[in-house]
Amino acid sequence: MKKKNLYSLACLMIIGWHAFAQTLVTQVKPADSKKWGYANIKGEIIIEPQYEKCYEFSADGYAPIYDTKARQYYFINTKGEKLATEVKDFKLIDGLGFDLKGFDDGLVPIRQGEKWGYMNTSGKVSIPAKYDHVLGFNGGHTVVQKDDKFIILNTRGEETVVNIPGLQDVKGFAEGLAPYRTGDKKFGFINEQGTVAIPAQFESVGYFSGGLAWAKNMEKKVGYINPAGEWVIKPQFDVAKEFDAKSGMARVKTGDQWAYVSKTGNIVYVKDTNLWGDFSNGLAQGRKNDKVGFFNTKGEWVIAPKFDATRDFKNGYAAARQGDKWGMIDTKGDWVIQPSFDGIKDMELVK
After folding, report:
1. Which residue among 109, 216, 271, 343 is the one 20 to 30 A from 141 at the CA level?
2. What is the DSSP string of 82-138?
3. How many CB atoms lie within 10 A of CB 210?
4. For the segment 288-306, what is each residue's pLDDT rounded down to a tens digit?
5. What distance lies between CA 288 and its chain's CA centroid?
6. Which residues of 29-49 are buried (b: 16+ CB within 10 A; e: fewer)?
């Protein structure tokens, strides 16, 4: 066999191995159970229901668990095995339990005493707890606060102090840019080097997604800007959301009417619904005759409104409820996990 063919075969084997090495996992609460566990894409229980509070798996292969009796967090892998950590008594960023996240870029923020640092997937403290406020990593960088200074941190723990006159706040990074706010309550964006990428000139801003971010001008109209701060879609909306990567559509509102806008500024109105969800994985939730389904970027029903409730699509699947039981559907609307659970969350792609 020629060397070129051998090389191609080796590449295909590597790609195949990586695909095989990943798995899909969701949180489930079985019927008549008060405990949560985890199941695979077939609906097979892979970690027995035993947790009062558990959260999604990150791509790094670990899920946070909260022990309500011990009042302590820990992490498990997809076999249900605890991650051994050098720090036993730590806290995580917990927004009332609804938006708790685990590892990003191989690191998770932990609080020891009154200070925050970061732990890696080996259970070691990779960045010492010395900060007053922290955020999760995104794209290799995050924003932390120490005393009255805002600092950009990379995954090696290297610090870059943000020196902007009148700086009041800095949010998290998305696509290499982070919103910042000055004393005159105007917003702009900084880059990963801590310098101004887009000067503070907006009343409010969102996060970059698909190369665009929504921004509200001082006349209180919302449009979309590019990383240079230029208007790509002129300010004309009252409310705007982030773009969905797959569909290239974002939800917008003018007056009391919701619609969708493309990256080229084309506005699509969907009339055959009384619910306008955000696009996710190329589909958006809609509702008709008290039943929920999904429509595409043309406003056409791709999945007929036949469910009693749904969650957004993630990794090609969406939780759906029929009667009082939850299951999981694919993008055709077919059940991949029959509606037999009292609760089910998003399908996560895990190493």
Report:
1. 216
2. BPP-S--S-B---STTSS----BTTEEEEEETTEEEEEETTS-EEEEEEESEE---B
3. 17
4. 999 999 999 999 999 999 9
5. 28
6. bbeeeeebbbbbbebeebbeb
